[in-house]
């Protein structure tokens, strides 16, 4: 395909693409090597499989489930309402109900499937903002130094002095029980870890020689920050974020379990486990299966995070 | 008479089994080192010099690496060696008939000599007084001095004791959380525990005596001691005299420390006076000190007498008791370590022994390493690129220290390096390695002046030279040996150097050349060695 | 710098952090939309009661002076009445705090040594079965929610073992309802019953501790094992290990004496984290096993919007957490001469 740009100049898209590949050749080959390493790491591949499975379940829940909820808007929030199926309460796991039924006769397997979507959503809505916010603050602190760094790090330290769950419980208690508030609480709880991490990275990298060389060639501070320091600080953030995905899901479900998250009856794994407590010995499957789902999801994210860490560690490459 | 052979390596083969394939790091190394000799082992990076050293000590990291064959004899007596030559001839012939020709292990030899071995054992069992010859023959037939067949406990007794090794990077070679003195002392505690126990017992006797005579002292500087004497405050318990004159203090520096009880030197590390046994530091357990020391004396005499003593084992098993009791061993060890540090010309060794490795410079650390590894007077010191990471001036000092120590103890040194200049200056004999095999071996003179292997020839030619008034030489390009070091995963067939060799023959591509002596003491592994006429001045 | 100077410096650095925490707690409290008076007195409170409450607790003053009033009370120890049960907060804490400490200490006594030992051994015997089991625990252990583990254990020990007739472990509370708690010396039922020479109570207290402590400790064990193992692997690859072997030391000596001393960094770091996660885990474990500890107390306070309880709890927790980290920092300095003497 040929595009005429100017009179006499003929530029072919194909050659532009080729030139792009050439310019970034080394990056692309590094990427290929990273993928190769990832494939070699069987645990990481397993993790990837688990996560893809969870995502698939979350997206396909309406098609895979047996019972389905109605969605209603209550108090400005979308909530699930599941039906009541008299005569089907506490059925043990069977072919018709793979995970059994609960005290309302609702098929538990369906609820677990829908729960996947809820948990993934919370994970996404917490990890991305928290990591972005935390990293930016960390970059700022590490790069600027001085009083800016002091203030940011002191605030981060204060937040980090309170165990995450406690802080999250306190905030959620203040704001009121709802899944949205859980999300806010977790973002507030999680950002300082990224700040500390990134700042540490920035400090280390600032001392490294290639930064000296860039400075001596006359690079401006923002260029330094963006093109040199940031790309090298990113890899630990990526590793941490992928593992945090799992931990956020774990903690959010924990808050649900304690009664601070989604309202009872919602298909949220933590809430489901807490409902199961009341019928612990009659219907143990109610608590068992959502927990298992949590384990698999968190496991998947941990494995990916570990795999990423091994891949991105410059010492282990080659 | 030639010096006895300390280390004899025969057919050492070490492979690394990695994910990508088997790296043939060593393909049959032959080397001989005599007492008092400095043998240099040179070669490019990756030719296997360090692997050779590690293989001798069996320190090759074992999951990927494995010593596949060969024998390494440590301090084999001449008589045994003579018998072994006879037996080896028989064994190799038998093995050759079975098709085994290279890198033969001692297990294979012993197996091949099975009838002889059995006969010798029988004769040894019956013959009482004349058994010597049979015993020597048995040792020869079973390759009893082969390091590669010894159980690992014996190897541990040899490491750091008979064979010591110092490594390339002094900055990281020592444990950062222990002081220098402690780390040197560790070697002594491991291998010279009996001597240390004796030292401890002597110290204990001295202290018990001092306590009995109620000798009390403090540590003061000479200046302070003199002022004490002048002011009449000194009262020497040992001689019961007042106003001691300071004859004994002449010859000491003002800043040196002495014990006030006997006015003899008492360096900072000592918590009791070495001459009179007085306690110099504040003793928290003073009232119990007598009984504690008596118990210690009992323990240490037991430790000295019997290694497997039950009481000693019991104390060793309870962590806190062990630490308390072994403190004395460690202190004596540290004192001996200070002496070693003095030998390697470290200034103010007492203070340095109390420092941590990260507080020392590179040259100091390497000296401390030498002190650590020489503390037990090894028969051979293997130095793996000891000066590569150091400045040239420091390098000179280190080499000088090594030479002095060698002369004192008639130790052999295997110096591994890629710096030909160092080798030319320091080494008696030189071995040139290429891609896992010895290419050439001989005295420094032979190898540097009358080199025969094309690789050595190429190496010597590629050394850049400054020659006065040789302006036309300056315009010549630097000589380089064509090609690159072979990939040891897939080495070339035949002679490994043949792809790069200007003198390669057809034969070189197929047949591996064997190390043969073309001159007395001068061995080459080459089918087409360089004639004498082409030697480089 | 000497060790005690280091300690003092760290103590001084703690003060702004603690103050910061009080500020956050204060902000959180003030953010609660419910009127504290109504929360305490109940929905049927009369206006004059409410006004009296407001006056007593300075609830109508400007914010800064409320903060200082609260800070003052905090420091003097007047922590007010609980919103949960209307007893003084201090008395509540006096019962609940030792209960949690007992549980947490038991859990850590289980988790720390086992985690460290397995971590070291699995690094030493890389790729043998010990290593595989340890890695499995390390990876899966952190993915298991504490609350779920506790519930599963309850099911298992109730259902399955009762079938076999081995209904061994109690599932709720700190003591059988038939037994009376021992006279309070430390608040730890185990210690107190020993002091009172009451063996039955002691054994029963231990039995009740087993499941909750295991549940709490398991997650910590996984983390500790993981960090110790990775720290050890890193250390074992360093040069001085090779030197130690070249000296003739046995593998055990090399690993436990030379290697581990250098790997304590990683282990200490993670121990600090485990204190924090232990407090978090407490909340779950106490809820599931009906354990009367501050975790459960905190949860109830949160649900009741009880600000006195919440503030006291946050304060105590922060003190503990921060002191634990201080101890760990001191240990860093004690074990690593480079930290003490400021090396490279």
Q: What is the residue-mean pLDDT of chain C, rounded to a whole number?
A: 81
Number of discrete helical segments of chain C? 14
Strand arrangement within the widest β-sheet of chain B reads: 5-10-11-3-12-13-15-14
**N-to-C order of helices and strands of chain C:** HHHHHHHHHHHHHH
Instruction: Give the quaternary arrangement of the chains.
Output: heterotrimer
Radius of gyration of chain C: 24 Å
N- to C-terminal distance of chain B = 32 Å
Number of strands of chain B: 15
- Estimated structural class of chain C: mainly alpha
Main β-sheet of chain C, in a few words? none
Summarize the helices and strands and which ones pair or pack.
The complex is a heterotrimer of chains A (318), B (537) and C (344).
Chain A: E1 2-6, E2 9-12, H1 13-23, H2 25-40, H3 42-64, E3 70-74, E4 77-81, H4 108-144, H5 146-161, H6 164-175, H7 179-206, H8 209-216, H9 221-258, H10 269-278, H11 285-312
Antiparallel strand pairs in A: 1-2, 3-4
Chain B: E1 5-18, E2 21-34, E3 38-42, H1 49-56, E4 65-74, H2 78-98, H3 106-112, H4 114-126, H5 131-141, H6 152-158, E5 163-166, H7 180-191, H8 193-212, E6 219-221, H9 222-231, E7 235-236, E8 241-242, E9 257-259, H10 289-305, H11 310-317, H12 319-343, H13 349-353, H14 362-374, E10 380-384, H15 392-409, E11 412-417, H16 420-426, E12 429-434, E13 437-443, H17 444-449, H18 454-461, H19 471-474, E14 516-519, E15 522-524
Parallel strand pairs in B: 3-11, 3-12, 5-10, 10-11
Antiparallel strand pairs in B: 1-2, 1-4, 6-9, 7-8, 12-13, 13-15, 14-15
Helix pairs in contact in B: 2-3, 2-5, 4-5, 7-12, 7-14, 8-10, 8-12, 12-14, 14-15
Chain C: H1 3-31, H2 36-41, H3 47-56, H4 63-76, H5 89-124, H6 129-141, H7 146-164, H8 189-195, H9 199-236, H10 239-246, H11 251-288, H12 294-304, H13 307-335, H14 337-341
């Amino acid at each position: 395909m040929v595009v005429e740009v100017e009179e006499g100049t003929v530029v072919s898209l194909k050659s532009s693409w080729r030139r792009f590949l050439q310019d970034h050749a080394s990056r692309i080959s590094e990427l290929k090597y990273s993928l190769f390493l990832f494939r070699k790491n069987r645990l990481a591949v397993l993790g990837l499989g688990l996560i893809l499975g969870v995502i698939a379940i979350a997206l396909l829940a309406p098609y895979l489930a047996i019972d389905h909820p109605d969605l209603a808007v209550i108090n400005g929030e979308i909530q699930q309402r599941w039906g009541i199926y008299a005569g089907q309460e506490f059925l043990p796991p069977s072919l018709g109900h793979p995970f059994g039924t609960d005290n309302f006769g609702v098929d538990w397997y369906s609820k677990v499937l829908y729960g996947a979507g809820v948990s993934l959503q919370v994970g996404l809505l917490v990890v991305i903002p928290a990591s972005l916010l935390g990293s930016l603050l960390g970059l700022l602190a590490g790069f600027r130094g001085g009083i800016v760094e002091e203030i940011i790090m002191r605030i981060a330290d204060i937040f980090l002095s309170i165990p995450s769950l406690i802080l999250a419980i306190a905030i959620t208690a203040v704001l009121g029980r709802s899944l949205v508030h859980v999300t806010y609480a977790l973002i507030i709880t999680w950002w300082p870890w990224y700040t500390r991490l990134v700042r540490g990275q920035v400090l280390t990298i600032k001392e490294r020689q290639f930064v000296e060389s860039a400075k001596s060639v006359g690079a401006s501070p923002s260029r330094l920050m963006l093109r040199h320091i940031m790309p090298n600080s990113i890899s630990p953030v990526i590793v941490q974020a992928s593992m945090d995905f799992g931990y956020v899901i774990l903690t959010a479900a924990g808050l649900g379990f304690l009664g601070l998250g989604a309202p009872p009856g919602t298909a949220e794994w933590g809430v489901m486990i807490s409902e199961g407590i009341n019928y612990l010995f009659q219907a143990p499957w109610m608590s068992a299966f959502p927990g298992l789902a949590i384990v698999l999801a968190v496991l998947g994210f941990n494995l990916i995070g570990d795999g990423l860490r091994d891949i991105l560690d410059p010492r282990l490459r080659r | 008479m030639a010096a006895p052979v300390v280390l004899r390596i025969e057919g050492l083969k070490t492979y690394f089994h990695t994910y990508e394939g088997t790296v043939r790091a060593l393909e049959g190394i032959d080397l001989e080192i005599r007492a008092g000799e400095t043998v240099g082992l040179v070669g490019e990076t990756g030719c296997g010099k360090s692997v050779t050293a590690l293989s001798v000590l069996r320190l090759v990291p074992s999951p990927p690496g494995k010593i596949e064959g060969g024998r390494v004899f440590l301090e084999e007596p001449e008589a045994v060696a003579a018998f072994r030559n006879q037996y080896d001839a028989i064994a190799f012939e038998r093995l050759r008939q079975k098709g085994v020709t290279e890198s033969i292990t001692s297990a294979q030899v012993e197996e091949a000599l099975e009838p002889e071995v059995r006969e010798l054992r029988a004769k040894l069992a019956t013959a009482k007084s004349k058994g010597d010859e049979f015993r020597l023959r048995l040792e020869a037939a079973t390759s009893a001095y082969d390091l590669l067949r010894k159980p690992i406990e014996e190897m541990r007794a040899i490491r750091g004791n008979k064979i010591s090794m110092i490594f390339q990077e002094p900055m990281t070679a020592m444990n950062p959380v222990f002081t220098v003195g402690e780390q040197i002392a560790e070697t002594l505690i491991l291998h010279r525990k009996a001597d240390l126990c004796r030292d401890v017992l002597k110290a204990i006797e001295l202290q018990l005596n001092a306590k009995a005579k109620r000798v009390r002292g403090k540590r003061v500087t000479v200046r302070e001691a003199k002022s004490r004497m002048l002011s009449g405050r000194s009262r020497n318990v040992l001689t019961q005299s007042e106003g001691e004159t300071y004859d004994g203090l002449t010859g000491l520096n003002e800043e040196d420390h002495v014990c006030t009880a006997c006015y003899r030197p008492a360096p900072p590390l000592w918590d009791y006076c070495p001459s009179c046994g007085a306690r110099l530091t504040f003793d928290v357990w003073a009232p119990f000190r007598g009984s504690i020391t008596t118990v210690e004396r009992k323990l240490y005499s037991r430790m000295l007498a019997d290694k497997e003593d039950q009481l000693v084992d019991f104390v060793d098993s309870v962590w806190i008791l062990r630490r308390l009791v072994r403190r004395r061993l460690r202190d004596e060890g540290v004192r001996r370590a200070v002496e070693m540090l003095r030998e390697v010309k470290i200034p103010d060794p007492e203070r340095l022994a109390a420092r941590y490795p990260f507080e020392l410079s590179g040259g100091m650390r390497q000296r401390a390493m030498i002190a650590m590894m020489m503390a037990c007077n090894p028969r051979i010191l293997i130095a793996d690129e000891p000066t590569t990471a150091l400045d040239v001036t420091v390098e000179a000092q280190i080499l000088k220290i090594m030479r002095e120590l060698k002369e004192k103890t008639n130790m052999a040194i295997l110096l591994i390096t890629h710096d030909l200049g160092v080798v030319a200056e320091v080494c008696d004999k030189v071995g040139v390695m290429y891609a896992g095999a010895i290419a050439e071996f001989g005295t420094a003179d032979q190898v540097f002046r009358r080199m025969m292997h094309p690789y050595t020839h190429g190496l010597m030619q590629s050394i850049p030279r400054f020659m006065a008034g040789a302006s036309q030489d300056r315009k010549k390009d630097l000589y380089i040996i064509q090609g690159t070091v072979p990939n040891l995963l897939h080495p070339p067939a035949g002679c490994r150097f043949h792809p790069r060799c200007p003198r390669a023959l057809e034969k070189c591509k197929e047949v591996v050349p064997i190390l043969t002596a073309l001159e007395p003491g001068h061995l080459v592994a080459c089918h087409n060695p360089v004639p004498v006429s082409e030697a480089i001045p | 710098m000497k060790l005690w100077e280091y300690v003092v410096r760290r103590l001084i650095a703690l003060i702004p952090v603690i103050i910061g925490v009080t500020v956050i707690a204060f902000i959180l409290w003030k953010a609660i939309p419910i009127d504290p008076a109504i929360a305490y007195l109940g929905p049927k409170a009369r206006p004059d009661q409410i006004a009296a409450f407001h006056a007593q607790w300075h609830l109508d003053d400007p914010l800064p002076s409320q903060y200082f009033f609260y800070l003052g009370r905090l420091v003097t120890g007047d922590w007010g009445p609980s919103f949960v049960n209307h007893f003084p907060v201090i008395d509540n804490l006096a019962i609940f705090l030792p209960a949690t400490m007992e549980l947490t200490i038991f859990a850590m006594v289980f988790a720390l040594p086992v985690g460290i030992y397995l971590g070291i051994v699995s690094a030493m015997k890389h790729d043998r079965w010990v290593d595989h089991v340890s890695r499995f625990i390390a990876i899966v252990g952190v993915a298991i929610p504490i609350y779920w583990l506790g519930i599963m254990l309850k099911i298992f020990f109730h259902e399955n073992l009762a079938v076999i007739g081995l209904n061994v472990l109690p599932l709720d509370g700190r003591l059988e309802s038939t037994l009376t708690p021992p006279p309070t010396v430390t608040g730890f039922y185990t210690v107190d019953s020993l002091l009172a020479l009451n063996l039955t109570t002691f054994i029963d207290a231990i039995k009740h501790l087993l499941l909750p402590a295991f549940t709490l400790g398991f997650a910590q064990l996984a983390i500790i094992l993981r960090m110790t193992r990775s720290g050890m692997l890193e250390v074992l690859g360093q040069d001085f290990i090779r030197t130690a072997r070249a000296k003739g030391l046995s593998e055990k000596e090399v690993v436990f004496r030379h290697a581990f001393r250098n790997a304590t960094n990683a282990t200490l770091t993670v121990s600090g984290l485990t204190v924090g996660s232990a407090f978090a885990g407490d909340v779950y474990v106490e809820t599931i096993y009906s354990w009367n500890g501050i975790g459960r107390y905190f949860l109830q306070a949160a649900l009741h919007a009880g600000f006195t309880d919440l503030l006291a709890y946050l304060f105590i927790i922060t003190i503990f957490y921060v002191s634990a980290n201080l101890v760990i920092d001191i240990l860093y300095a004690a074990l690593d001469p480079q930290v003490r003497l400021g090396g490279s």
